[in-house]
Amino acid sequence: MDFLNEFVLLLKARYPIIYISTSEEERIEYLIKYCAKKYLIRTYYCWDFVDGYQGNLNDVGFATKNPLEALELISKVTPNIAAIFVLKDYDNFLKDFTIVRRLKNLSRSLKTQTKNIVIVSSVVNIPESLKEFVTLIEFPLPTYVEILEELNRLLFSLQQEIKISTLRNIATASQGLSLERIRRVLSKIIAKNGGIDDSSSNLILQEKKLVIQESQILEFCSKTKNLLDLGGLDNFKDWVKLRYKAFSQDASLYGLPYPKGLLLVGVQGTGKSLAAGIIAHEWQLPLLRLDFGRLYASLIGQSEQRVRKTIEIAEALSPCVLWVDEIDKAFSGFQSHGDSGTTNRVLSTFLTWLSEKSSPVFVVATANNIDWIPSEILRKGRFDEMFFLNLPTCEERKTIFELHLKRHRPDSMQKFHLGLLGQLSKEFSGAEIEQVVIEAMRLGFHENREFSTEDILVSMQNLIPLARTKNKEIELLKIWSKSGNVTNASKYG
Questions:
Q1: Which of 87, 93, 98, 88 is nearest to 126 (CA)?
Q2: Residue 193: helix, strand or coil by DSSP?
Q3: DSSP symbol at 37
Q4: Residues with Cβ within 8 Å of residue 405, at least 6 apart in sequence
Q5: Which of 66-70, 302-306, 441-445, 451-455 has the lowest mean pLDDT?
Q6: Are 201 and 169 in contact (CB under 8 A)?
Q7: What does the alpha-carbon distance between residue 344 and residue 365 come to, in Å, rounded to a whole number?
């Protein structure tokens, strides 16, 4: 059910107090007025702390700087008059016991009247004592159609004409932004370029990055690596190649559902994080990194709200890749976050979305410790596929050495003994191989000469691979990988 239909239903069902979370005050006010006039035929009242009541000529300025008096008007309006009372930023006064008590009393009386209180705020701040009386709904970001309409209005006012394809591209690029932000960034584009054209998408992308940074939970990641930068993991590569058009319009017209996501489990340093960026690069999708640790907040209910906000941003920016790094640590134990109830609610919210989502958000979750991952995540249907990334084989290690040496010394590759390096680097991960190459370069640089195979071998002797210090954990991972519930990312592992 979309927001409009849900909101109208709540009003008709006489839900007394509705709390709408949104930063788009102008847009939600327009929609509430539209509902009041078209669907319900109700009088519209609007209050804020500075100007008091607006919207009804008889009460303009009433209850200025008096939040309790704002509630008194609701009770004074004749019961047979249908009305909607919008209270802006009223969450700031919900700590006052008198106001809480008055809202509870009003809640009971309004159930028999065609009146509703609608609290509009950019943050959710509902005290525990009011939760049973208040219905929370979140106002979604503008849809593609709404953005298209706004762009047409703007272009009409500017008397500017652009190609239909350009207009659609700009509308698509603007998804994930509020209408106010879209207006601002388009004004900036017009001031800079004198109009809107195909290049405008770059400035819109920069605005999206700012939005993501402001969320303090999501991070917009660059994606410079491709499949050629990944040594081994051929099964994983084949899987990615087969689905490179999965989010295209052609795939949709063919009837293919969007792929849900991947769970990458394996030894540290085997390329799990790299794989997430490669998927985004190969499929030409934006890459968002989710830091699960930042989701947990001290106030009750805020953690779940942050999950919902994260999901909202990801879906608005779709199609995209949502990278959940080290998801095992997020659910490793309730003690990490101080409240098992909060962890359970966050997990439940995330899993429900993961199972039911229909939006083109491809989730790539990475994990090192299978014992920390809740069984609910491992259940079939959460992800399209689960891959196990083992330590590289001899042939894969040779390929990884070749990749790094080509990047650093492309003109002198022939002097390195790749076969020997592959054989003697048993138990080394891809990240550790990269590290020994860099250390070998340091040795050569220190002695003012080119580094050699011998320098790499010396570096290998000086580095103790994780496979030796974490042997027990890695063996357990290998045993789990043979359970039949996971696919080996490598053809040779």
A1: 93
A2: helix
A3: I
A4: 413, 416, 418, 437
A5: 302-306
A6: yes
A7: 18
Beta carbons of 371 and 329 less than 8 angstroms apart = no
End-to-end CA distance of the chain: 47
What secondary structure does DSSP assign to 118-132, as a single string? EEEESS----GGGTT
Nearest in space to 141 (alpha carbons), one of 171, 169, 162 = 171
Domains present along the chain, CATH in parentheses: 3-138 (3.40.50.300), 144-215 (1.10.8), 221-389 (3.40.50.300), 394-426+430-464 (1.10.8)
Cis link prior to 319 (omega < 30° from 0)?
yes
Single-letter residue type at 250 = D
Look at residues 381, 277, 253 and name the one whose alpha carbon lies nearest to residue 325.
277
**What global pTM score does this model have?**
0.72
Q: Contact 307/350 with Cβ under 8 angstroms?
A: yes
343 versus 74: the higher-pLDDT residue is: 74
Q: Fill in the amino acid letter for 40.
A: L
Mean pLDDT of 467-488: 84
* Dihedral Cα 371, 377, 382, 383, nearest 10 deg: -30
pLDDT computed for residue 49 by the predictor:
95
CA angle centred on 37, ends 35 and 40, rounded to 5°: 65
What pLDDT is stored for residue 337 in this prediction? 46
Strand order in the sheet with 261-266: 218-221, 287-290, 320-324, 361-367, 261-266, 385-389, 487-488
> Are β-strands 487-488 and 52-54 bridged in parallel, bridged antiparallel, or unpaired?
unpaired
Beta strand 17-21 pairing with 43-48: unpaired
Give the Cα separation of 326 and 269 in Å (integer).
12
| Rg of the chain, C-alpha, whole Å | 28
Residue range 200-228, pLDDT digits in tens: 877 887 787 777 777 777 888 877 788 88
Q: Are the CB atoms for 292 and 327 separated by under 8 Å? A: yes
Residue type, 417: H
What is the DSSP code string of 293-332?
GGG--SSTTHHHHHHHHHHHHHHHT-SEEEEETTHHHHTS
Dist. CA 383–CA 385, nearest whole Å: 5
Type of residue found at 292:
F
